[in-house]
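Quick check before the chapter quiz. The format below is the same one you will see on the exam, so make sure you can read both the input and the output lines.
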Amino acid sequence: MIRRFLSLVAIAIVTSSYAQAAEPVKVGILGIDNFGSVAYTEHLNHPKAEGDFAGVRVVAAFEINSPTYPDSAKLAGMWKQQLLTMYQNPTDPKDKVPPVEFVNSMDELFKKCDAIMIFAMDGTQHLALATAALKAGKRTFISRPIASSPEDAVAIFKLSEELKVPVWSSSQHRYNTGFSGMRNHPEVGKVIGCDVYGGYTEKSPPAEMFMRPLHSIETLYAIMGPGVTTVSCQSTPTAESITAVWKDGRIGTYRGIKEGAVKFSATVFGDKGVSVAGIYGHGVPVNGVVPTTDKYVGYEGLAIQIAKFLKGGDVPVTPAETLEVFAVIKAAEESKAKGGVVVPLTDLAAGLKK
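Here is the expected output.
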């Protein structure tokens, strides 16, 4: 009898553990006027989600528009409709997913979820939103930029450290395989330098100042890694040119295209060879040929990292590296204002963990 009782207890424990494991991490969205609110939910809520996407689901959202950000309300209306109808009319009824619920307050959102994704387009709102989420004890992903100023970014990470609640942010370009795959590309070898290029919109709202070059600067970091010591910037009506020098003497550049055809890619210099990088959404080149007919994975790379994090994984990009990216952009603005002089990088992460 005792043996049978212990066996039943063991079965009950295993069954209970399985039920807990099967319960998905419930995710809430703060702000939906960024298309990322739709793009990443499509991955996290897919009816046949497997691998890294299994065990996590967006369950609720709170709409937060910006009164000063162009088209905020219009965009939010478009993405809200897509979120409400996502996976609601599948060919197979078994593939129907519970719809995302729109709530009336942040407090209501926090009660319904375990973790938060912030997709408010206006970066000036991110500090307040992140503060609320972190104080509610919710691990948080913030769509790029993490904030609209270095000061706000530092404040978010300081609060995260104080509360022991993790937070991070990234551009989807960082996890595009055509870019990140160049760091250990067999035709390039050890990366010695990199010239990245991408779009640069001058007529953007102040909240976007730190987002204009962010995709391409993060591409540069995906390929080169951290360690910048100085930055200089030249600006003309046709291009924004940023040059960064790493502590080991390597040089990386960013050409922000203001006029003419726009493409996001790079040229990578290594100890074995020189190669173009892939283009956004596609894989690395093979024998110098950039693939364009392979599977398009524009948001999937970052979505995988978000899913791992939301389920309790480590922060994929450290606060120190994120703040270094901000420091590069800040130094570039200072250099441009001073006619292109070389500006030493400020260690924005110095105040963390004190």
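If your answer matched, good. DSSP finds ten helices and 13 strands in the chain.
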